[in-house]
């Protein structure tokens, strides 16, 4: 079973995109006094286990990759080499949609063809793997990001 990936859309600003989760007070549960003693041993404790392992970097690692919309991620492109028009496309136009995984350092870790013209799929995947992005900041830390990128190819003008 896969865990759904949360979708975050950063507010439009000129500063680095950030997202935060509102902090809430911890909930304290008290056990009612009318529970039979035979069942009290089966109750979960009211406080967290002090010896439970903690994730390095807090809970952020558990929610990665963060799903980010295409426009928000395109705003973070820092190096975008031009993807050459493939000779095998023979003058066609086409659109390709890729699923892209971007690491904490902004480097493309994976790119997969999802839909569109097969004539441009290899060129799109190979080209996007060369792109660099500014790190996406979540709760003050860089996180890996998953996004969709759509590219349109047109034959070069002569």
Summarize this entry quickly:
This protein is α/β, with parallel strands linked by helices and 158 residues long. The protein is 13% helix and 27% strand. The chain has a domain at 62-83 and 92-158: TonB (TolA/TonB C-terminal domain, 2-Layer Sandwich).
Characterization of the model:
The chain has a domain at 62-83 and 92-158: TolA/TonB C-terminal domain. It is built from three helices and nine strands, in the order βαβαβββαββββ. It has helices at residues 37-40, 70-74, 118-128, and strands at residues 7-8, 66-68, 77-79, 94-102, 108-116, 132-133, 136-138, 141-143, 145-153. The longest helix has 11 residues, at 118-128. The chain is elongated, with a radius of gyration of 23 Å. Mean pLDDT is 76; it is low at 6-22.
Distance between the termini: 51 Å
How many strands, what sense, and barrel or not for the largest sheet?
5 strands, mixed
If you compute it from the alpha carbons, what radius of gyration comes out, rounded to the nearest whole angstrom?
A: 23 Å
Taking pLDDT < 50 over at least 5 consecutive residues as the criterion, the unreliable ranges are 6-22
Note the overall shape. elongated
Fold-level CATH name of the domain at 62-83 and 92-158:
TolA/TonB C-terminal domain
Assembly state: single chain
Instruction: Report the strand count.
Output: 9
Estimate what percentage of residues fall within beta strands.
Answer: 25-35%
* Averaged pLDDT: 76
Could you state the CATH homologous superfamily of the domain at 62-83 and 92-158? TonB
Number of helices: 3
**CATH architecture field of the domain at 62-83 and 92-158:** 2-Layer Sandwich
Per CATH, the class of the domain at 62-83 and 92-158 reads: Alpha Beta
Helix-strand category: alpha/beta
Spatial order of the strands forming the largest sheet? 1-2-9-4-5
